[in-house]
């Protein structure tokens, strides 16, 4: 599994395992143990997913050393604010059964997220977090954010898939050495991704599925990916993308699939911001 080097020198696996929408304790715990057993070495969770305890127990019970696992969590909106963020990240440490975290992100750029990030900066400087970053930041908010904080975000985790490739955002992130990380790398199957003619045609050449080609496109573009599945065979398929390379022509054909818009949440829409601010754990 290749690594990417974050802007502070920390190495992060380019492919990890996500546990979004797996709130059931036993199911999540088993999924993480299965993911580790087939070769994943990065696990992405969040306070808002309400499964940090299952992730922590799975890691504690696995045969993989903690030092070999890259753990990411995210601070939820209702836990923003300097003191509350300090408190809840410490709670996350306890649930995840670890004395440090590899990466902690601000989950949504709403409410008092500047104070929350100040708390992450302190935890970073204290050595409790190896890298800090943000999530769901569009280009304008991202540029403002890096100009007004001491520690540049190491990562911005955003909706990124073949239909929303984040080309404008990536221009500014590249200028400031922030790593892009994809959530929903399969677009949750929207726009018939798994039956897409371009992806399947390219996949036939390499004996790969449309899903594998979609992941490879992102990875070959420098994106960190965190596909999710609760099925071992699909986990194996999702990680089996490192034995082939797409040609420049194939990359261009997939690049042309970009619709340059969200298929999920438009963070420039005031109604989205109102809805997010009302969500509680």
Automatic annotation (TrEMBL):
Keyword Oxidoreductase: yes
UniProt KW Amino-acid biosynthesis keyword: no
Protein known as: Aldo/keto reductase
Entry keywords, A to Z: NADP, Oxidoreductase
Family to which the UniProt record says this protein belongs: Belongs to the aldo/keto reductase family.
Source organism per UniProt: Apilactobacillus micheneri
InterPro entries listed in its UniProt record: AKR, Aldo/ket_reductase_CS, NAD(P)_OxRdtase_dom_sf, NADP_OxRdtase_dom
Ranges where the NADP-dependent oxidoreductase domain occurs: 22-257
């Amino acid at each position: 599994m290749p690594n990417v080097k974050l802007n502070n020198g920390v190495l992060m696996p380019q492919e990890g395992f996500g546990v979004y929408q797996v709130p059931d304790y036993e199911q999540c715990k088993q999924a993480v143990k299965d993911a580790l057993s087939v070769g994943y070495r990065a696990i992405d969770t969040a306070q808002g997913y309400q499964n940090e305890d299952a992730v922590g127990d799975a890691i504690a019970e696995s045969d993989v050393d903690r030092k070999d696992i890259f753990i990411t969590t995210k601070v939820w909106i209702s836990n923003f604010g300097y003191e509350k963020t300090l408190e809840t990240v410490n709670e996350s440490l306890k649930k995840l059964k670890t004395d440090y975290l590899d990466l902690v992100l601000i989950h949504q750029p709403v409410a008092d997220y500047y104070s929350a990030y100040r708390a992450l900066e302190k935890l970073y400087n204290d050595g409790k977090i190896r890298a800090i970053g943000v999530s769901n930041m569009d280009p304008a908010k991202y540029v403002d954010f890096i100009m007004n904080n001491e520690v540049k975000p190491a990562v911005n985790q955003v909706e990124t898939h073949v239909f929303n490739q984040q080309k404008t955002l990536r221009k500014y992130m590249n200028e400031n050495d922030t790593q892009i990380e994809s959530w929903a790398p399969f677009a949750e199957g929207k726009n018939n991704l798994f039956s897409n003619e371009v992806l399947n045609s390219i996949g036939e050449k390499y004996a790969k599925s449309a899903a594998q080609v979609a992941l490879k496109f992102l990875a070959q573009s420098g994106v960190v990916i965190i596909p999710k599945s609760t099925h071992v065979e699909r986990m194996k398929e999702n990680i089996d993308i490192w034995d082939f390379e797409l040609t420049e022509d194939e990359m261009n054909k997939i690049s042309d699939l970009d619709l340059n818009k969200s298929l999920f949440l438009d963070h420039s829409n005031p109604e989205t911001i109102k809805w997010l601010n009302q969500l509680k754990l």
